[in-house]
Amino acid sequence: MGKHGKKYAAAASKVEKRPHTMNEAVQVLKSVAWAKFDETLEIAMLLGVDPRHADQMVRGTVVLPHGTGKKVRVLAISGPDRFAEAQAAGADIVMTGPESVEKLTAGFADFEAVVATPDVMRDIGKLGKVLGPRGLMPNPKTGTVTVDIGKAIGDIKGGRVEFRVNKTSIIHGILGKRSFTPDQLLDNLKAFVTAIQRAKPSAAKGKYVRSAYVSTTMSPSVQLDLAEVDGLVAADKH
After folding, report:
1. Tens of pLDDT along 147-184?
2. Which of 24, 68, 113, 174 fits a disulfide with 20 by CB distance 3.0 to 4.6 angstroms?
3. Three-state SS at 99
């Protein structure tokens, strides 16, 4: 295992090894980040689920109030009659089902998100081998297969992110850029954590969120206070 550099070590020395409130965590990360580029704020949450069982899968989407700070190129796949709607909503590329199959299987990959209307799914089913490994295959469960293609594109452009628990029961997510204000990062963090809490499977038993840490691209991680994490949804209901 490689050793961390002096800058990382200096940053790590400023991070207390204790649970932090979300506000504290954001403030700490803003103060210790040292990279010269605009780092991304990230979160990792260990969940008390077994993703090998379908009824314990945690998957969904959340629209971050202040976006991700990243420009996303969106490919919209629909019939020609929906092209104008997709373009008006901000789609960077629009294609019919057969056209998308031809171009994507030939290697076209200049996009980071894909949305499709239900009527083209029969055509693009064969794209699973191309889009599946990138996690981009349109799916009704994540809102990327929809008759309201304009809204789907607008959500993605506006900061919608997908989340899915991995085989080690961890969910990773992005929360914005270091250049965001502390309030913006805090709002995004709360929105993401709330979405994970609401996605709790009914089959999950025991403690749901086992641990949660936030970090920037290059920084050490900061542990979150699980009492606050667990209280978000309860507070939202009142």
Report:
1. 999 999 998 988 888 899 999 999 999 999 999 999 99
2. 24
3. helix
CA quadruple 208, 56, 138, 233: dihedral positive or negative?
negative
Q: What residues pair up with 46 in beta bridges, in sequence order?
A: 170, 211
Residue 165 sits at φ, ψ, to 5 deg, of -65, 140
Is the CB of residue 61 less than 8 Å from the CB of residue 163?
A: yes
Radius of gyration of the chain (CA): 20
Query: In Å, what is the CA distance from 57 to each residue of 51, 68, 122, 194, 196?
Result: 5, 24, 26, 17, 11
User: Which candidate, 158, 151, 167, 171, places its Cα nearest to that of 214?
Assistant: 171
Q: Which of 67, 74, 58 is nearest to 172 (CA)?
A: 58
Instruction: Return d(Cα 30, Cα 39) in angstroms, integer.
Output: 10
Classify 51 as helix, strand or coil.
coil
3-state secondary structure at position 127: helix
Exposed, middle or buried: residue 204 (CB in 10 Å: 0-12, 13-18, 19+)? middle
Q: pTM, whole model, 2 decimals?
A: 0.79
Q: Residue 104: phi, psi to the nearest 5?
A: -75, -35
- Alpha-carbon span 65 to 161, nearest angstrom: 11
Left if phi > 0, otherwise alpha if psi is -120 to 50, otherwise beta: which for 55? Answer: alpha
CB within 8 Å of 61: residues ≥ 6 apart: 142, 143, 155, 160, 161, 162, 163, 195
